């Protein structure tokens, strides 16, 4: 009746595969950053959207406080308690809470004050071109394809109309 249910598929990432493909990441600009996660979308071949399963240990943060100019982003909390820093204001978040960052987005970051692990899904667009701002660091990242260039925002100069 449901033929092919046991046949392996490149469109399905099983729980064991998700756990096996988890990687640890720490953002180099945030000493409190430490996440363990799996890129779910890439695991099933999606190219235009990203979906990630993220785990943040107690006392750690996700990445670095940032905003996006072109790629929308979202977060859906599955387990634990977190603090979302959004546009300079802290919001307690927990299971079932959803956050969205339409572009141009406000700056945001997640932190886990504990107890226990903070687990959430995050996702967004994968565009060929993106500009990200890091307001507390006064830096800007410009990505074209795989090439990423970092600029000091204080060095930016207005050129006027071109």
Structural overview:
This protein has helices spanning 15-20, 40-43; strands spanning 23-25, 35-39, 49-56, 67-68, 73-79, 82-86, 89-93, 98-101, 108-111, 118-125, 129-134, 139-144, 147-152. The protein has 162 residues and is mainly beta. The chain has a domain at 19-128: Jelly Rolls. The strands form three sheets. The protein has a six-stranded antiparallel β-sheet. The protein has a four-stranded antiparallel β-sheet with strand order 4-11-12-13, with no helix packed on it. A hairpin with a 2-residue loop joins strand 6 (82-86) and strand 7 (89-93). The longest helix has 6 residues, at 15-20. Mean pLDDT is 91; it is low at 1-5.
Per-chain topology:
Layout: H1 15-20, E1 23-25, E2 35-39, H2 40-43, E3 49-56, E4 67-68, E5 73-79, E6 82-86, E7 89-93, E8 98-101, E9 108-111, E10 118-125, E11 129-134, E12 139-144, E13 147-152
Antiparallel strand pairs: 1-2, 2-3, 3-10, 4-11, 5-8, 5-10, 6-7, 6-9, 11-12, 12-13
Q: What is the compact description of this entry?
A:
This protein has 162 residues and is mostly beta strands. The protein has helices at 15-20, 40-43, and strands at 23-25, 35-39, 49-56, 67-68, 73-79, 82-86, 89-93, 98-101, 108-111, 118-125, 129-134, 139-144, 147-152. The chain has a domain at 19-128: Jelly Rolls (Sandwich), CATH 2.60.120.10.
Order of secondary-structure elements? HEEHEEEEEEEEEEE
Strand order within the widest sheet?
Answer: 1-2-3-10-5-8
- Please give the alpha-carbon distance between the first and last residues: 64 Å
Strand content: 35-45%
Low-pLDDT segments: 1-5
Fourth CATH level, the homologous superfamily of one domain: Jelly Rolls
Task: Note the total helix count.
Answer: 2
Major sheet description: 6 strands, antiparallel
CATH architecture of one domain: Sandwich
DSSP summary, beta strand count: 13
Radius of gyration: 18 Å
Q: What general outline do the C-alpha atoms trace?
A: globular
